Amino acid sequence: MKKITYIILFLAFLSSKGFAQEIQFDKQASVDQGYLKSQESANLLPMNELNVETGYALYLAEINLSVENPMLSLENVRDYAVVFLDDKLQGTLADQHKQLALKAGPGKHKLQIYVENIGRITYGPEILDNSRGLFGSITLGKDEIEDWMITPIKIKNLEVSKLIFEQRKSSSLPCFFKAEVNLSQPSAYYLDISGWGMGEVWVNGTYVGAYWEEEKQQSIQIPSEALKAGQNEIVVFELKNLEQKNMKLSKQAVFR
Amino acid sequence: MNTIKTYYKLLLTAFTLLSFFTANSQTQTVDLTGKWRFQTDVMDFRRGSLSPRYNHELQGEIQLPGITDDYQIGYKVPYKYIDRLTRKYEYLGPAWYQRDFEIPQAWKGKQIFIYFERTSWLSSIYVDTKEVSKNDYVSVPHNHNLTAFLKPGKTHRITVCIDNRFQYNTHKWDHAHTEFTQINWNGILGEMKMIAVDPVYIEDLQVYPNISEQSIDVKMDLANPTGKPISGSIKFNVAGKNYKLDKVMKVSGKDSLIHFEGKISLGKQIKLWDEFQPNLYTLSCKLSSDVEGARFEHEKTATFGMREVKQGKNHVLINNKPVHLRGNVENAVFPKTGYAPVKEDEWERIMQLMKKYGLNHLRFHSWCPPDAAFRMADKYGIYFQVEMPMWGRDAEPDEARYNFFRREMIAILKEYGNHPSFVLYCNGNEITGNFDFIEELTAKGRLRDNRHLFCGSTARTRVKSDQFYVSQQTNKGPVKVYEGLPYTNWDVSQQSDVDVPVISHESGQRAVYPNFEEIKKYANSPVEARNFEVFRELLEKNGMLDQANDFFKASGALTVVEYKAVVEALLRSGKSAGFQLLSINDFPGQGYASVGILDPFWDSKGLISPEKWREFCGPTVALLRYAKSAYFNDEVFQGDAELYNFSPSGLKNAKIKWLLKDESGKMIKQGGLKTQTLGTDGVFPMGKFTFDLKDIKKAEKLTVSVVVNDTIKNNWNIWVYPRNENLLTTTADVLYTTVFDDQAKQKLAAGGKVVLTPFPEQVQGRKSIFHNHFWNPIMFAWPPMTIGCLIHKEEPVFADFITANHTDWQWWDILNNAKVIEMKDAQQALRPFIQVIDANDKNEKLGIGFEALVGKGKLLVLAVDTKKDMDKRPATRQLLKSIDTYVKGDQFNPKVTVDERFIQSFMVKQFENKP
Questions:
Q1: CA–CA separation, B648 and B321 (whole Å)
Q2: Which residues of A touch B499 (CB under 8 A)?
Q3: Where is the Glycosyl hydrolases family 2 sugar binding domain (chain B) (predicted)?
Q4: Taken in order B73, B78, B83, B86, is the CA torsion positive or negative?
Q5: Do the two domains B201-304 and B634-721 of this chain adopt the same fold?
Q6: CB atoms A221 and B477 under 8 Å
């Protein structure tokens, strides 16, 4: 058989297997488009006191370092925090690990902590504590960090069609990304998010689901009704893996 | 002593004789129920330091089957546990049970077993002075093979040690052995027997139905400890209603365990099993084998149903037909006995109640019930989800615990696998830890047995081998429904549409105030509702004991309102596989969750009849989507009717009508929708209808009904109100104010009338929320910490406001814009007309609206926002109208006096700007 026949057979094989279609995210929109009214506070405030039942918030403070690479320690984080220093990703904090060494030299820095809460505690010793977000003490070395600007962020109920997107450039803060994908015929797919960190997804303006790299489940089902023939728009809000460029449409659910 | 010995000898003779009478072919059985010698071993100083090593006769006595609690053995509990029922006598540790048996001479060459249907948790058997067998299954019978240790013709002393301490570090809440629901008992339950079988016997019998072939695949393990080759035949008999079939197959082999597989074609007359037609068949297998001239026989039977289960797109498929699971969570709640029933009668009652309340599914949360439960579910057509004793951090690495789970899962599949009611298997509840282990179990289960669908864990991380998912959320959003809304044009269909069928986890959970009348039901139980006594004392101390029953009824009525809304939302969700209510019966642990319409004994609380419940929860239910419950009378009602139909068949040329009736039952309007044929296995649109409300001149409660073929009927309450334009108008007679200021005080001092409607932010206390508390206020001490409201509807203040003595959806805009006033400092005689029911572990007097004398003046307080969005709050306007008519009339005569300081006590302190 000729080489071309092989190629045709190979392509036919791929299509029969529902070959995963690549989606390229080449537009971005800044997270501040989802910011709600900020509140200043000397100490951390749980999200409850900002009237946020569940969802995202940004905790921002200016810090003045006297030593290099100090240890950031949190008393309470519900449920997940991504730490940035001067717009650079430093790491994540969660209930199991509430300490992080910051990579920074002496001087003034901007500390930004993006926090997501996913619900109440219904189990374990903290069961009677209903606070969400960041609260209690937060220290750098031995010093308490004070003077916070706390901003709830509207993400899940956001009208993503109203976001203003620009061409993708390097982004180091949580960000919305947009891709367009051309489908000849809409059918049900699984959006393979492997490689991405934590975030939310909308298809043609409709919210379709959330993902997290630490779950075994690594795809979101997209019902055929959410898609249309021709151009489809996929918007992602990503908290931390901000270098990611692609997702795939797969015919099968993806598990780690 | 002599007498005792004679007694035992007599007893033994009786048993030996009995064994011959009950002999079945060559299998012989001795019933072991009755009197056993007994001894506790609280210290457990050293296992075996006790009598068995010395062949010592235990001195106590106990009757088996039974548990130590039945004989008041153990620690007499002096406490009143608040978060659960209190066990009267606790026993935790090894306990010893003993009897002497003469093994009949005729048992020579036979295999001899001792079988206990249920124990908890470790059973070990000593023959004379030696420990010879141990078994630590939780979910299945303990069957000890004692052949090597019992000598026919000899009298042996059998000592059994039952150790109910945790044998592995599993979660203390697991319902298989928790103190929260059933108790962590010590004893032996159900069938207890000694069995002697021929040495070639059927060790395992599994029946795999194939519905397209109308056949069964029979898989058997034949034990052959003879060490010699066998040859013989198995005589199969399949029997059911109007059905009989015989078949013989040859069998031979030489191994100690011979695996046999055979197919039996059952023919066209065999009937399928499902919830509507639970047709059952019995397969009897009679094994006859020849081993070097000796002939052995053994018989085993299994009940089966012709049903297959498959994973559909959004639903579980039974015999290729989608089912929608209308379920209840069963948490081993058995306060009458302290353990799960092992006999059929109580399970039969439960399955009948399930049917009566339109349910077809039971989830056994972190436990697996005894065989009798499966038998009754097989008979009545109920789909089970069963689990291991696994919860929370049980999947964190611990090899001993892992191995226990590995054994336990296989044991459950083997013991109960033939039951057609055993449809779903899940490892356990809300598991955290190593999900590679959870995937390992799930994958292994799937591979081993295709008669069930498998799932890793409820409400936690998904795993690859999941065939269904029970959760409060998927990665597409929440699928939980814990409460209703005053509108019905919503569902959780989109969020339920993932790669496997999704069942909504632990739906409902709305607290009802405890019914203190239940205290007396525990007289003969191993547990008591001492927490109820504490709650009742608190209520009495706070001067409201006379209201206990009103609190119970009013909060119960609200729970019914919520459950109707919860269930309907889940029925409207066409892509949901079903729901598991938590729960139709009360949960007496975790703080005591009185969330049921039935009490912990599965007795009705009298809150709703099964017939009324089935209007919104059953195989076929009329549904209605609408945008709100409270209307102005210049608006139009728009309804969108749907039919939820998971009955066996569609409805041909269904006649559909809608009705509008007033509170007296008088028809106001009615109309028909297009006669149409409606399908089955889904939710089907029936059409829209509208009606104008302009003819409703005064405030009214109306009922909208949708009726299909005159037999399927469902109702929804709506409220219609005039616009009530001129409200809160101060006159010479009455001062309306939002602040308790000098003007108000002067008015009162002058003997005038004041209506105080402070802004909620100006009132101290809890935020008012329509819903009654979730689960219970002890475990989840988060808002609202209130259990609904008692409305004193007979008071003249409500003359123009139609209400029951409990809150319904018209109260939504009132209660969600209000503050709860703490009134413990007011006179006990003061009863608020809108009385909020406090958390039952606090029981303080709370209110949103009350009236009182202040000096000579008459004051009415309503802690409701009367300014915000008033054009969207018809019910609040009507309440204000009713209050206005009342205060401006001559019936406004408060009886109880409060002083100014009380009013100031609940207002947010204002800093006065005095120079």
A1: 9
A2: 190, 219, 221, 253
A3: 90-167
A4: positive
A5: yes
A6: no
DSSP class per residue in B374-410: HHHHHHHT-EEEEE-S-EEEEESS-HHHHHHHHHHHH
The CATH class that applies to domain A36-153 reads: mainly beta
For residue A208, list chain B residues with Cβ-Cβ distance below 8 A. 476
pLDDT tens digits, one per residue of A100-128: 999 999 999 999 999 999 877 777 777 77
pLDDT of B9 strictly over 80: no
Q: What is the pLDDT of residues B482-526, one digit of tens each?
A: 999 999 999 999 999 999 999 999 999 999 999 999 999 999 999
pLDDT value at residue B16? 44
- Tell me if B629 sits within 8 A of B486, measured CB to CB: yes
Q: Which residue has the tokens 């339920």?
A: B496
Inter-chain touch A127–B780, beta carbons under 8 Å: yes
User: Which residues have C-beta within 8 Å of that of residue B447, sequence separation ≥ 6?
Assistant: none
**Pick from B392, B435, B499: CB nearest A253:** B499
Contact criterion met (CB below 8 Å) for B869 and B827: no
CATH topology of domain B634-721: Immunoglobulin-like (2.60.40)
Quote the pTM value: 0.93
Q: How many CB pairs under 8 A join A and B?
A: 49
Compute the nearest-CA separation of B498 from chain A (Å). Answer: 6
Mean pLDDT, residues A162-171 taken together: 92
Kindly report the nearest CA distance between residue B460 and chain A, in angstroms.
10
Residues shown for chain B: 915
- Compute chain B's Rg from CA coordinates: 33
Q: What is the residue extent of each domain of chain B?
A: 2-195, 201-304, 321-614, 634-721, 734-906
B500 to chain A, closest Cα gap in Å:
10
The beta-carbon neighbor of B497 closest among A123, A215, A221 is A221
CB of A211 within 8 Å of a chain B CB? The answer is yes
Assigned token pair, B310: 């498959």
Q: Which residue among B464, B498, B780 places its CB closest to the CB of A221?
A: B498
ipTM above threshold 0.85: no
- The CATH number of B201-304 is 2.60.40.10
Domain ranges of chain A: 18-31+156-250, 36-153
Alpha-helical (H) ranges within B580-643 are: 610-614
**Count of C-beta atoms within a 10 Å radius of residue B7:** 11
Closest CA in chain A for residue B456: A216
Query: pLDDT category, B13, cuts 50, 70, 90?
Result: very low
- Arithmetic mean of pLDDT over chain A: 90
For B782, the closest chain A residue by CA position comes to A130
- Determine whether the interchain pair A209/B475 forms a contact, defined as Cβ–Cβ distance below 8 Å: yes
Which chain B residue has the Cα nearest residue A225? Answer: B494
Specify the fold of A18-31+156-250.
Jelly Rolls (2.60.120)
Question: What average pLDDT does the segment B121-134 reach?
Answer: 94
- Cβ–Cβ of A127/B463 closer than 8 Å? no
Distance from CA of B466 to the nearest CA of A (A): 11
Please state which CATH number belongs to domain B321-614: 3.20.20.80
Q: How far A234 CA lies from chain B's nearest CA (Å)?
A: 15
